[in-house]
Specification:
Blueprint lengths: L4 E3 L2 E7 L1 H19 L5 E6 L3 H10 L5 E6 L3 E2 L2 E2 L17 E9 L3 H11 L5 E9 L12 E5 L5 E2 L15 E5 L1
Parallel strand pairs: 3-4, 3-7, 7-8, 8-9
Antiparallel strand pairs: 1-2, 2-11, 5-6, 10-11
Helix pairs in contact: 1-2
This protein binds inosinic acid and magnesium ion.
Magnesium ion (MG) binds next to loops.
């Protein structure tokens, strides 16, 4: 794992290693398989941040999952703008389907609440959230997410899909902002 990573004007230090992430991804996949086997689940990965997590998770799943990608945008730099755009990219009917949203990180929960509301109107049989990271201190979402990789302090992180001003997504591990 690289020691320090410099992105734009900021520096980041190692936080969650690739090995630790992969071990946890396998555990989450086992939990999801136990719940969704035989239910023809459809997973909706939220672009761009969840692409890497979704890919690794999918390599472990045996519950015959379908996959679709959706996109929203609510973030500018390191602070939430509080603004959330529409959900785009959904082409499959979700009525009576078991739906699992795959997210990179839940911070304030604003994005997830918006996605949840939009998806509930499609009348799925069930709707669950699987996120790699959760910041419990910031999270004010209406529902508690069911599948969480790691709970972290309220700090800004990059890597494994997560970006700082569009850079850092390619890193195979998670790095935290240092001052
Ligand atoms: P929320 O609406 O405040 O929960 O923000 C969710 C979105 O903000 C995530 O899907 C990320 O794209 C972005 N985000 C939140 N925290 C971080 C972070 O620490 N690093 C990078 N992106 C983040
Ligand atoms: Mg995101």
């Amino acid at each position: 794992m690289r020691t320090l990573v410099h992105i734009h004007d900021l520096s980041f230090a190692p936080f969650i290693s690739e090995t630790t992430i992969q071990t946890r991804v396998k555990e989450l996949a086992a939990q999801l398989d136990a719940e969704y086997a035989g239910k023809n689940p459809i997973f909706l990965a939220v672009l761009n941040g969840a692409f890497m997590f979704a890919a690794d998770l999918f390599k472990q799943l045996t519950c015959q999952p379908e996959l679709s990608f959706v996109k929203v945008s609510s973030y500018v730099g390191t602070q939430s703008s509080g603004r959330v755009d529409e959900l785009i990219g959904l082409q499959t009917a979700l009525k009576d389907r078991h739906v699992v949203i795959i997210e990179d990180i839940l911070d304030t929960g604003v994005t997830m609440d918006k996605i949840g509301t939009l998806l509930q109107s499609e009348q799925p049989a069930s709707l669950a959230v699987c996120a790699l990271l959760l910041k419990p201190a910031s999270y004010k979402g209406k529902q508690q997410p069911q599948y969480i990789g790691f709970e972290i302090d309220d700090r800004f992180v990059v890597g494994y899909g997560l970006d700082y001003k569009e850079l850092g997504r390619e890193l195979p591990a998670v790095y935290q902002l240092i001052n």
